[in-house]
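chain below, 164 aa
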Amino acid sequence: MSTMSGTPDSDERTSLREHFRRRLRECQVEAKAYEIWLGLLTPVRWFTVIGGIVLSAIAGGIVLFAEYQVEGEPWRVHGAVCAIFASVLTGIHTGLHCDSHQTECRRLVQLYSGLATAYEAAPLLPGERLNVKFEELEARFEQAKSEAAASPPQWCRRRANSAG
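prediction:
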């Protein structure tokens, strides 16, 4: 068929281009939402990891040197408090699966960024290759959505959507 304006081929191509633009935007928003979420989680992760290590070391030092306590200071109590807080921080980090969650978020940032690039380039393809690329990208997009093992909160998506 002819590719002149108003023909079925050009209408289909225009419709595909519009769909690619929408998906490009969705992928950009998703990637940005995960980046925003990681921006919050990363310092929290470091706080729980480093806090647990430092507080455990302090508690151990206090127990080790408790016999040298300064008059009037209940060092064993300070050591016990440090040990409790270290346990709480370590428990939070472990219980919330911080490492695996952040790894999945980083993977999804890369995945959606790659999909965004592919959706951006796809409209430049000729004829039949455009349809093949459409089917390929839609399958990858749906797979990304269905297999994601992490999700940023809605406020991250809203912020990402308003940022772009």
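Confidence is low (pLDDT under 50) at residues 1-6. Residues 44 and 93 are 9 Å apart (CA to CA).
thats it, cya
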